[in-house]
Amino acid sequence: MKSIANEDLIGSKSMPHGNDVCQGPSSHSLNKKVTALVVEDNVVNQMIHKRLLSNLGIETQVVENGKEAVDLHHSGAVFDLILMDMEMPIMNGPEATRVLRAMGVRSKIVGVTAYSGDYEKRVFMDAGLDDYYEKPLTMAKLVSLLQELVDNN
Fold first, then answer.
1. Which terminus of the chain has a lower count of CB atoms within 10 Å, N or C?
2. By residue range, what is the domain housing residue 38?
3. What pairs with residue 39 in β-bridges?
């Protein structure tokens, strides 16, 4: 099992290769870059999350609400990691997560929200999240999350 430290990821342009790389759904190759989708309506949070992921060499796409995330997957897009905000217009995070799981999406979906109450967390987790982080998302939290992603694949 390969360990990922900040110095291994920061400034690199790709994740480790070979058997250590995270694999998404079955069509991904072993040498494929890790991809992420940021589902967030707040422009500042979009920029922060995209910058953190990009600094780690993660190919990142951003959408503004859950419906856009669902539409992307309907069009055939596949991501290894989805960072999902809870409260968004048009389609919120829990609803989008339920729809994505019903579609068979097996990406790691992580809720990232300012809500820290047990009820909100339970509702979001019950929708099909793999994990849950309170904002702000930091480099340390992201490295830990990516370590889990690599270790589990």
1. N
2. 32-151
3. 63, 84
More confident residue, 5 or 74: 74
Taking the whole predicted model, whether its pTM rises above 0.85 is answered as: no
Fill in the DSSP letter of residue 20.
G
Distance CA 94, CA 105 (A): 14
Distance between CA atoms of residues 53 and 50, nearest Å: 5
What's 38's domain CATH number? 3.40.50.2300
According to DSSP, the β-strands at 131-134 and 108-113 are parallel
Query: Which residues is 36 bridged to in the sheet?
Result: 60, 81
* pLDDT higher than threshold 60 for residue 81: yes
* Residues present in the chain in total: 153
Tokens of 78: 């596949």
Asked if the structure places residue 41 within a domain, the reply is: yes
Picking from 64, 35, 39, 60, the residue whose alpha carbon sits closest to that of residue 50 is 60
Task: Provide the H-helix boundaries in the chain.
Answer: 6-9, 43-55, 66-74, 93-102, 118-126, 139-151
